[in-house]
Amino acid sequence: MLKPRSTPTREQVNLDGLWRFALDGAARPEPWKGPLDTRLEAAVPASYNDLFTDPAIRDHVGWVWYQRTARVPRGWTDERVLLRVDAATHEGRVYVDGVLVAEHVGGYTPFEADITGHVRAGDEFRLTIGVNNELSNVTIPPGTVTVARSGRREQQYKHDFYNYAGLARSIWLHSVPPVHVTDVTITTGLDGTTGTVGYSVETNSSAPVRVRALDADGAEVAAAAGATGALRIDGATPWRPGAGYLYELVIEVLDEDGGGVLDVYREPFGVRTVEVRGTEFLINGEPFYFTGFGKHEDAPVRGKGHDNAHLVHDFQLLEWIGANSFRTSHYPYAEEVLEFADRHGIVVIDETAAVGLNLAVQGGLTGRPHDPTWAPENFGAATRDAHARHLRELIARDKNHPSVVMWCLANESSSAEEGAREYFEPLVELTRELDPTRPITHTAWLGATGDNDLIADLFDVVTVNRYYGWYIANGDLEAAEQYLEHDLRGWVEKFGKPVMMGEYGADTLPGLHSVWDVPWTEEYQRAYFEMNHRVFDRFEAFVGEHVWNFADFATSNGIHRVDGNKKGVFTRDRRPKSAAHALRARWTGLNGRKPR
C-alpha cells in the first residue's frame, strides 16, 4: 500500500490530535450512529492504556471507540477522497457518518477506504473508529480471552511485552486523482559503478506511464517510458550502512495523448544489493556484521504511540553506541521509523507480529507436558492463513525500503516440535514469491538446537536467541560460556549458513552494584556480554549480535517482572546502564566488520 505523499496531484490532511474516547458499552449501543457520549479524550497517536487513571480502561478487553469531526478541503471536488489508518491494534472498524467503510485485522499495518461517495468537498463529516485489542488462536500475535470469577474479561497472551492497544499511529485524509498510481515496486542492483533499477508501476486504470530517477540534489539521472522497465544510473552512489544515500523515482501517469499529467507519485529508493553467500551476509558485495538490538515501540504514557522526538533520540543513541542495525521485534514498526533508517543508513531486519507461537514454553517453564503447538485447536491452518496475510501486508508496505535487508517470519516459534515444518514451509515459499531479493530468517528459542530444529534449513540465515548465564546457568558465566559455545557450534556445523544472535541479555537494575558476579547488577550485565562476545568471536560463520534489549520496556503483570523487562542497556527513559559504555567500546571499532 502506497504511503500518502504530497505531490502536485495529491494532498493530505493529518487527523492526529485529541479524539473523543469511550469504552464499548459506556456509550450508546451503536456508538458510530451519533456523537460519542463521553467526557474522555484520547491522544492520537498513542496507546490508550496508560493515558487514564481508571484501571477499567487500562485493563479493558474488547472494543473501544474514537471519534472526531473532519472536513474535506474545498479543492478536492474532482478528486478521490481516501481515509488511511496507519495502524489499529489489533482490529479496526471505520465509520463515516454512521456508515461502515473499512475493516481490518492486524495491529501494525495500515488500511484505508475510499470514502468519496460518503463525503463532499468543503463539508464536515463525523469519523468514528473502533479498535479491538482481543487476541485469539487465529490472530497474529495469538492469545486467549478468559473470564475471571468476578466476571471480568481477561486477555492472556504468550508474548513478553505489554499488549498496548488503540490508534498508535497517524490517521490521514488524502486525495488522489481519478486516474492514479496504486502501487510501485522497485528493485536495485549494481553493475560495476552503474546502478540498475527495475520498476513496476500499477494504476487503477489503464494509462501511459513515464518515470524519472532523481539524485539527492534533484538532478535527473535516468528516465524511461512504460509501467514496467529498468533504468541505469551511471556512477551511482550506493546506499550503504552508515551512509543512506537516496534517489527518488518520480512516476507520472499521463493522459491518452501523452501530453497531460494525470497523477504524480514520488518514491524514495536506495541502490544496493543484499545476498547470502556461503556463511557470509553481503551488502553491496561486502561482508556485513550486524551490531545492534532488538527494540520495542515503547515509552511511558504513550505506550506504542509513535513519537518523532523518541525516534530522533533513539537513533542518536544507536549512533552513539556504534549500532548499525536493529530488528523490529516483534511486529512491524511505524513507517516513519523505516524512512528514518533509510535516510541515515541503519540496517533493519523487518519482522512480522508472529510472536508467541510456542506452547512448548509452558512445558519448559513447568516441566509438565504441554498442548501441541501445531494443532487445529491451537495454531493450525487458520492461524497460518492469518500469518500469510500479515506477510503480504508487511512486504507490500516495506518492500521499497533500502534499510530493510532481511525478513524475519516469526520470533521463537516452537520450531523443534512436530508440525513446525508443515506450518512454515508454505510461508517461506510465499515470502520468496513476494520478494525474491531479500534473505529470510526466523529466530530460534532456547528449546531448539542444531540437533532438533526442524525448519532452519528453510531459511538463509540462522538466527538464535540465547540466554546462557540468565535463564540457564544464572550467575555461573563459566558454565554459561561452555553451554553457549557448544550450542552455536551445533548450528554452524549442521547448516553451513550464516549464524547470528537475535537476542542475548540479562535483566539489570540501574544503580545496583557488586564486586561479585551477582545477577541483576550492572557489573553482571557487562560480564555477561563479555562472555557472549568471546564465544561469538570464535566462529567464522557468525555474522552479528543483537542485544536484547535496546531499552527497558513494559510487560504484562507478573511476579517475574517487576516494573517490566529490565534487559535494556538503556533505561525506559533512555539513560545508559554501564553495559552501554562497554558495548560502545566494542562496536564503534567494528564499523560493520567481523571482530578479529
From TrEMBL:
Q: Please state the Enzyme Commission number of this protein.
A: 3.2.1.31
Question: Which keywords are on file for this protein?
Answer: Glycosidase, Hydrolase
GO terms (molecular function) for this protein are: beta-glucuronidase activity
- Is Transport one of the keywords? no
Q: Which Gene3D superfamilies does the record match to this protein?
A: Galactose-binding domain-like, Glycosidases, Immunoglobulins
Q: Which residues form the Glycoside hydrolase family 2 catalytic domain?
A: 274-590
- Alphabetical list of PROSITE patterns matching this protein: GLYCOSYL_HYDROL_F2_1
**Location of the Glycoside hydrolase family 2 immunoglobulin-like beta-sandwich domain:** 179-272
Domain of life, source organism:
Bacteria
| SUPFAM superfamilies hit by this protein | (Trans)glycosidases, beta-Galactosidase/glucuronidase domain, Galactose-binding domain-like
Enzyme class per UniProt: hydrolase
**Limits of the Glycosyl hydrolases family 2 sugar binding domain:** 14-177
* Cross-referenced Pfam families: Glyco_hydro_2, Glyco_hydro_2_C, Glyco_hydro_2_N
The keyword Hydrolase is annotated on this UniProt entry? yes
Name the family the entry cites.
Belongs to the glycosyl hydrolase 2 family.
Q: Which NCBIfam families match?
A: PRK10150.1
Stated name of the protein: Beta-glucuronidase
Q: Which gene encodes it?
A: uidA
